[in-house]
Amino acid sequence: MMLHKEMIHIVQTQLAIDLNCTIDDLNREKDSVIFVAAKENPGRRPYPRKERYFEILSMGKSIVVSATPERLSIAKAQMQGKDRDSIFSLPFIKGLYLHFLPDLKKIQPMSPPEHFSYEVVENEEISGLLGIEGFEDAIISDRNHPYQTVLVVLAKKNGKIVGMVGASNVCAKMWQLGLEVLPEYRHLGLATYLVNRITFEILKRGCIPLYDVISSNIASQRVAYRVGYYPAFVTDWRCDFKDFETLSN
Question: Region 97-122: what's the mean pLDDT?
Fold first, then answer.
């Protein structure tokens, strides 16, 4: 299994590509703000971007803001001289995403809940899972999507799928997790076990699992902590520049 230092280097290298900044920018002094112009760099994770774009990210110290010119100008005017908490509370930032990584020094394989069977599914075999009702958050069903689910761990009860966690190849080395357990099978430890199991499956393949959750989703965060993940960085979940762009025109 890779070392923690190696994992962080891979993650920060990818984030630097995505944001069009440097690794040093991600590690500058607390509350320092780095403004960079958004750019379609080769290897960028293929999340959709519109004509006007904004992203803010912090790994706990400095803040990096990557945006198209109009929004970059607004961000500079609103953020200058403010501390981290004030910046992330600005009115055009409409919620936060917490991004969790496995704590490689502490995480351990878990024993599965009894009375269920488990299965690992990969690549082409995943097509047989598409369209199963109740698991839309676990697996990408659109075959034209810019990234795809490449690894799945299933939980079954009497041959019926009751839980599913999928990993999608958002980039070469970072795979994003999606999780769903049917309501009547929750609170039995399935979510925790499934995330734990797929974490080690991903690490075994030389890649890094990324567990993303909206800051208000406490239940999902509890799963991350129980498995052995920690919050590694934070970004905006949604932004709304309507009033500010109107004022700037």
Answer: 97
Position 58: which residue type?
Answer: S
Cβ atoms of residues 43 and 17 within 8 Å = yes
C-alpha 15/C-alpha 57 separation (Å) is: 9
Specify whether the CB–CB gap between 56 and 64 falls below 8 A.
yes
Residue 167 CB neighbours (<10 A)? 26
Q: What is the mean pLDDT of the chain?
A: 95
pLDDT in tens, 203-222: 999 999 999 999 999 999 99
Among the listed residues 140, 139, 118, the one whose alpha carbon sits nearest the alpha carbon of residue 196: 118
Nearest partner of 101 among 6, 238, 219, judged by Cα: 6
- Residue 81 CB coordination number (10 Å): 8
Report pLDDT for 1.
Answer: 77
